[in-house]
Design brief:
The protein is of the alpha/beta class and about 290 residues long. The protein folds into two domains: about 130 residues, Periplasmic binding protein-like II (D-Maltodextrin-Binding Protein, domain 2); about 90 residues, D-Maltodextrin-Binding Protein, domain 2. It is built from nine helices and ten strands. Strands 7-6-8-5-9 form a five-stranded mixed β-sheet. Strands 2-1-3 form a three-stranded parallel β-sheet, covered by helices on one side. Helix 2 links the parallel strand 1 and strand 2. The longest helix has about 35 residues. It is elongated, with a radius of gyration of 27 Å.
């Protein structure tokens, strides 16, 4: 081998080694960047209102089948169980979950929140998404018409039968949208500030019927107003999907959604729903 050929060979090997080293550096950098961009969903990394604590909000009073004994902390009821299941997926023990009160109507108002997420049968709507974040859907509910058993509306078989009814509904709910857009009664619905006022209006015959989501209708008729009946059910405009509500741009939204998705895929959400929500098996569909 001549000295000239030896020099050329050394130069070629040096260039090849440099190229291989460069490729190795690129791979390492790409892997590191990928790891840094992945969401880190654990109590040490999550930017919660109180470090190390997951603060969850809901309204008061908190009714079954979503909460039992007006006590969200006991883990009983559909939404209490869902909230604790999300917390568990995120790595929080039950003792690290703090509950606070937030009224339904103020929950989706714009601005800072003093909670990490809120569960309160809050429907995901485009208008609300302009002001707050939502997790992926943890429940989809229809709407139901409830009337006193001895009223003429108890025998209604279609939405047309409700055309002249005086209907009660809670302010700011998708039930109100459902009445206006689907039932379209000749008389504007009576709007009440909270669910307690809606129930009392039905009891006191201030209204002919009320419209609530299906699970609430069956608790209402079984426990709160046993002299009432679920006349029938109908689909809400665009579907009535519920999500955990978070502050707009919350750093927790991705992680809470991932937790909900995991619970859905594992079947845990379905099991919680089966345990706590009475399904409408005997209420006809109103067309």
């Amino acid at each position: 081998m001549t000295s000239k050929f030896r020099v050329i060979l050394i130069l070629c090997l040096t260039a090849l080694l440099a190229l291989l080293a460069g490729c190795g550096d690129d791979d390492g950098s790409s892997s590191a960047d990928s790891g840094q961009s992945a969401a880190d969903c654990n109590p040490e990394a999550l930017e919660t209102v109180t470090p190390g604590t997951l603060t969850v909000a809901t309204d008061k009073p908190a009714f079954p089948p979503y909460f039992v004994d007006d006590d969200p902390t006991n883990g009983k009821g559909f939404e209490s169980a869902v909230a604790f299941a999300i917390a568990d997926e995120l790595g929080y023990a039950e003792a690290d979950v703090k509950w606070v009160v937030e009224s339904f109507n103020s929950s989706y108002a714009p601005g800072p929140k003093d909670f990490d997420f809120d569960v309160n049968q809050i429907s995901i709507t485009p208008q609300r998404e302009e002001q707050v974040d939502f997790s992926s859907t943890y429940y989809e509910a229809g709407q139901a018409v409830v009337a006193l058993k001895d009223s003429e509306l108890a025998g209604a078989t279609s939405l047309d039968d409700l055309a002249d009814a005086k209907i009660g509904v809670q302010l700011g709910t998708t039930s109100l949208d459902a009445v206006n857009e689907t039932i379209q009664p000749s008389e504007d619905p009576q709007v009440f500030n909270n669910s307690t006022d809606v129930i009392n209006a039905l009891k006191n015959e201030q209204v002919d019927a009320v419209v609530v989501d299906v699970p609430t209708a069956f608790f209402l008729t079984a426990v709160q107003v046993p002299e009432a009946t679920a006349v029938g059910q109908f689909a809400a405009p665009g579907g009535d999907e519920w999500g955990a509500l978070l502050e707009k741009g919350s750093p927790l939204t991705e992680c809470v959604s991932a937790a909900v998705d995991t619970l859905r895929e594992s079947g845990d959400l379905a099991a919680i729903e089966e345990q706590w929500i009475q399904k409408a098996t005997d209420a006809p569909t109103l067309d």
